[in-house]
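stuck on this chain:
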Amino acid sequence: MQHYPEAKVVLTTRDPEQCIPENPPPDHNHPHWNRILKLAEIVIMEKDLKMKEGARHDIIKRFQEQENRVKDTIPPGKLLIYHVSEGWERLCKFVDVVVPFTPFRHDNTTKDFFPVMQSLYDALPRIEPAN
């Protein structure tokens, strides 16, 4: 906010109890899954993301801590805490744009997560760097 005092911040959020699975996918120990989890670690985790006892609790705790850091850092008038289930209206009002006619997509659910990860897994051998 120091460099861009007029900026607005949209914190997209969801209920971590609902979106973080109790158990990993069956193939979570496959080397390609480990690469995907490594990417998740780079983005949101500090340590290896393995679903061992207590891991889900730790992930939820870190998720909530990160949200709280954002809430504590951004002034209330500059921050929209946004659930994608809300659709366009509140988001568009916050950024001062007209609500589009295009329906808001609601297809980023927990049940969609593993099929998306599977498609990434399937693509990994084709996108490995050349030696």
